[in-house]
TrEMBL record, chain A:
This is Phosphonates ABC transporter permease protein. Belongs to the binding-protein-dependent transport system permease family. It is found in: Cell membrane. Residues 80-262 form the ABC transmembrane type-1 domain. It comes from Haloferax elongans ATCC BAA-1513. It comes from the Archaea. NCBIfam families: PhnE. GO terms for molecular function: ABC-type phosphonate transporter activity.
From TrEMBL, chain B:
Keywords: ATP-binding, Cell membrane, Membrane, Nucleotide-binding, Translocase, Transport. PANTHER family: AMINO ACID IMPORT ATP-BINDING PROTEIN, PHOSPHONATES IMPORT ATP-BINDING PROTEIN PHNC. It comes from Haloferax elongans ATCC BAA-1513. The keyword ATP-binding applies. One of its GO terms (cellular component) is membrane. It comes from the Archaea. It holds the Pfam family ABC_tran. CDD domains: ABC_PhnC_transporter. This is Phosphonates ABC transporter ATP-binding protein. PROSITE patterns: ABC_TRANSPORTER_1, ABC_TRANSPORTER_2. The lineage of its organism: Archaea, Methanobacteriati, Methanobacteriota, Stenosarchaea group, Halobacteria. Residues 2-246 form the ABC transporter domain. Residues 245-264 have a biased composition (Basic and acidic residues). Coiled coil: none annotated.
UniProtKB/TrEMBL annotation, chain C:
It is found in: Cell membrane. Keywords: Cell membrane, Membrane, Transmembrane, Transmembrane helix, Transport. The keyword Transmembrane applies. Pfam families: BPD_transp_1. This is Phosphonates ABC transporter permease protein. The keyword Acetylation does not apply. Its main location: membrane. The chain crosses the membrane at residues 25-42, 85-108, 129-156, 214-234, 246-267. GO terms for molecular function: ABC-type phosphonate transporter activity.
Length: 270, 264, 272
């Protein structure tokens, strides 16, 4: 080969995605440092960790087999049914409320100030975890499923209005012009040109959100907002781990069925 | 040099892609394999370095029988065979330099490979090779920033830096436009001459095959049906390879007759 | 030439319905069905209508008691907020470490055999189906209250999600370059480093940052069952009806959630 190694530069360094190599190492050092600091900050002693792992074996053996007395079983069924009902009502309520918010937050339909209000509502409702909303709702309207329904509906607004407003922003405005051109009123424009374009998406998103709300409705009870969650929390507090494991398995089953049904329904619709 | 003997390949689907095929490549000759699509051209090339596992037969590279090699022996032998691929097969998110230097992976420890700690002699060679293929100065570009012709040049550089005993080339121009195809073929054959190594090239454009090859091998339905110097590939030979012996005139006549019968 | 009668004749159909009778019946029944289910659901929930009636007032009352937020309390929540972020980072890091092998198991082109594939899929769907707060309950029983339980809950809950998305990225890689690398005589491990990892790196970074963003929100609530972070402080203040402090915490949470969302979106934009 006609190569003379001495005459050509034998050094090469891989270009980096960072500003330069020093920056790269500084960034890596910072990340490593922060992770180590985090680790130090939560103060995990190896001893405690090992004891926990040992406890894991005990816990699993206490959990098996999953079991419940007839009374506990009835209570569980009640809780599950309540969770499912809560998710249905919350989804409906949330969608009804989020429809106007979605139109407000679509920058092709709403004037600027209204658009900003719509976006803020979405940002706030999306930012808080459903359990935080639930715990506040419990204090506002008392223990029970109503608090859960309100919390889930609140979360639904953020999710639904965001995705729906994006969908509205993508619509074909030519169709709106056409309806307006034949003399349609504002409402008629929405009914005849905007709605037909977004209906399939609305249905798909509703089914998807129902699935998500079903998941969440099984846990909001942990802060007192109705559903199976409170039963689960009580079983843990009474060290009745066989009952806990049964409830967890039932929740997993419900969630998996919900996910499969939702995926199937969305495929059918689209 | 390369000696292929009675090689067969039966795919899991039951397709017999190669039906006991034998051929040789030696010295510094450029041998092109032509044939209709589905004749087994790619399968043959890929069986030689065992990217596709041959079902039966022997493949010798100098004194090494390839089909019987174990994992690490196979890797050692693959270092001696540079391959140039149809769709370039560069790692798109790596730089040109890394793509070229990946040709030296067979000589590196995994730890050095992980740290991108390349031998400075290899880096110097890589720069030299990039200059030879006309890609000076792009070593820090990512492979996906290059044009098709440039990518294939990187592909050639990756094969050349292996310092192979033979180049296996699988449809190097099928993803390129005609003009770039000629440039790539020029470069490929020039480098093979300079480095004094043989080339086995699978190509479907007959005019490119005859223009660049010393020898042409014709495959049809997994069998070798023609072997000879590039200038021996006349109309008759092409009929055998592409139309099972029927001449174009005969075939047109037969077709006309069939149409006529169908019309009656 | 078209005659005018085509537009005015009764025989050409002056009536038009969007749906035929059968379609209309189906639609009516579907609508009716949904309404019945809703009504039944609402009735069977035993909602105390007194609460419903007073809810708007209660919420307003809550809001007036919350405002203005307790500014002095801000200094006290710096610690718990940092802990929340620590939990989210460590949980995500641990999740990624655990998810990598699971991802290769649950990707059809890298899994060793059918059983490992099914095992991978099982881990993915099981960890995903149990809510983070339930994982937190379990880990609090094991490791006692505190951030450790939180980190583990976040980590285990994230394994399925992370492994699922990474597995999909692995299934989508281009085999060509991988083959080309092994044709040069590279070992399996080298083929991995040069052929596979560069191809999944962007997906890896975006999945990791996306999950971290989700985990920041999750780590704000695991404190409700004692698994550390700002949730502990939030629950305490709610229990003592210190609503002005609650609002301070909520604003702080909003802040870190928006910041982490921004960081995560920035990083994902950068790698794509």
């Amino acid at each position: 080969m006609a190569t003379q190694p001495g005459s050509v530069d034998g050094n090469w360094e891989r270009p980096t995605a960072f500003y330069n190599r020093t920056t790269k190492y500084v960034v890596y050092a910072l990340i490593t440092g922060f992770v180590l600091y985090s680790f130090w900050n939560i103060r995990v002693s190896p001893d405690r960790f090992l004891r926990g792992l040992g406890g894991g074996v005990t816990l699993v053996s206490n959990m098996l087999p999953p079991a419940a007395t007839p009374m506990q079983f009835d209570l569980m069924v009640q809780g599950i049914v309540e969770s499912i009902l809560m998710s249905i009502i919350a989804t409906t309520l949330g969608i009804v409320v989020s429809a106007p918010v979605a139109f407000m937050a679509a920058n092709n339909l709403a004037p600027r100030p209204i658009y900003l209000v719509g976006r803020s509502i979405i940002a706030v409702t999306r930012s808080f975890h459903e359990l935080i909303v639930a715990i506040v709702m419990v204090k506002a309207v008392g223990f029970g499923p109503l608090a859960g329904v309100l919390a889930l509906a609140f979360k639904t607004v953020g999710f639904f209005a965001k995705l729906l407003s994006e969908e509205i922003e993508d619509i074909d405005t030519g169709q709106m012009d056409a309806i307006e051109a034949v003399g349609g009123s504002r409402m008629q424009v929405y009914l005849y040109s905007v709605l037909p374009q977004i209906i399939p998406r609305i249905i798909g998103l509703s089914i998807y959100r129902l699935d998500i709300n079903l998941r969440h409705s099984t846990v909001v009870g942990i802060v007192g907002a109705g559903g199976i969650g409170i039963t689960l929390l009580n079983s843990f507090q009474k060290y009745d781990y066989q009952y806990s494991s049964l409830i967890i398995l039932v929740i997993v089953g419900i969630v998996m069925i919900g996910e499969a049904a939702s995926a199937y329904a969305r495929r059918r619709v689209q | 040099m390369l000696h292929v003997k009675d090689v067969e390949k039966v795919y899991d689907s039951g397709d017999r892609a190669l039906k006991g095929l034998s051929m040789d490549v030696s010295g510094n000759e450029i041998v092109s394999i032509i044939g209709p699509s589905g004749a087994g051209k790619s399968t043959l090339i890929r069986c030689i370095n065992r990217l596709t596992e041959p079902t039966a037969g022997e493949i010798w590279l100098d004194d090494t029988e390839i089909t019987g090699l174990s994992g690490s022996q196979l890797r050692e032998t693959r270092r001696d065979m540079g391959m140039i691929h149809q769709e370039f097969n560069l790692v798109e998110r790596l730089t040109v330099m890394e793509n070229v230097l990946s040709g030296r992976l067979g000589y590196m420890s995994t730890w050095d490979a992980f740290r991108r700690n390349f031998d400075s002699e290899d880096i110097a060679t890589a720069r030299e090779v990039l200059r030879r293929v006309g890609l000076e100065g792009v070593e820090n570009d990512r492979a996906d920033e290059l044009s098709g012709g440039q990518r294939q040049r990187v592909g050639i550089a990756r094969a050349v830096i292996q310092r192979p005993k033979i180049l296996l080339v699988d449809e190097p121009t099928s993803a390129l436009d005609p003009e770039t195809s000629v440039e790539v073929m020029d470069l490929l054959t020039e480098i093979a001459r300079e480095d004094d190594i043989p080339v086995l090239i699978n190509i479907h454009e007959v005019d490119l095959a005859t223009e660049y090859a010393d020898r042409v091998v014709g495959l049809s339905d997994g069998e070798l049906v023609f072997e000879g110097a590039a200038d021996e590939l006349d109309e008759r030979a092409q009929d055998i390879i592409y139309r099972g012996g029927e001449s174009r005139a005969e075939r047109d006549a037969a077709k006309a007759e069939r149409t006529q019968h169908a019309g009656e | 030439m078209a005659s005018k009668s085509e537009f005015s004749g009764a025989d050409s159909g002056a009536e038009w319905e969007r749906f035929d009778t059968r379609q209309r019946l189906i639609r009516y029944f579907l609508t009716l069905g949904v309404l019945v289910i809703l009504a039944a659901a609402w009735r069977s929930m035993d909602i105390n209508y007194g609460y419903v009636a007073s809810a708007p007032n209660e919420v307003m009352d809550l809001l007036t008691r919350m405002y203005p937020p307790n500014v002095i309390y801000t200094s006290e929540i710096v610690g718990p907020l940092l802990e929340t972020i620590n939990i989210s980072i460590l949980g995500t890091a641990l999740a990624i470490v655990m998810a990598l092998p699971v991802a290769f198991l649950s990707a059809s082109n890298t899994t060793p055999n059918r059983w490992t594939y099914l095992f991978g899929k099982f881990i993915v769907s099981f960890t995903r189906s149990v809510n983070v707060i339930i994982w937190a309950l379990i880990f609090v029983v094991l490791f006692g209250p505190g951030a450790l339980a939180g980190v583990l809950a976040i980590a285990v809950r994230s394994v399925g999600f992370t492994a699922k998305l990474l597995g999909e990225a692995i299934e989508e890689i281009d085999r060509g370059p991988v083959e080309a690398i092994s044709a040069t005589g590279a070992s399996t491990f080298q083929m991995f480093i040069y052929g596979i990892i560069p191809q999944i790196k962007p997906a890896f970074i975006s999945v990791a940052t996306f999950r971290w963003d989700i985990n920041v929100r999750a780590s704000t609530i695991i404190g409700f069952v004692g698994a550390g972070g700002i949730g502990v402080a939030l629950q305490t203040n709610i229990n003592y009806f210190k609503w002005d402090a609650v609002l301070t915490i909520l604003i702080a949470i909003l802040g870190i959630v928006l910041v982490s969302e921004g960081i995560s979106a920035y990083l994902r934009g950068k790698v794509s």
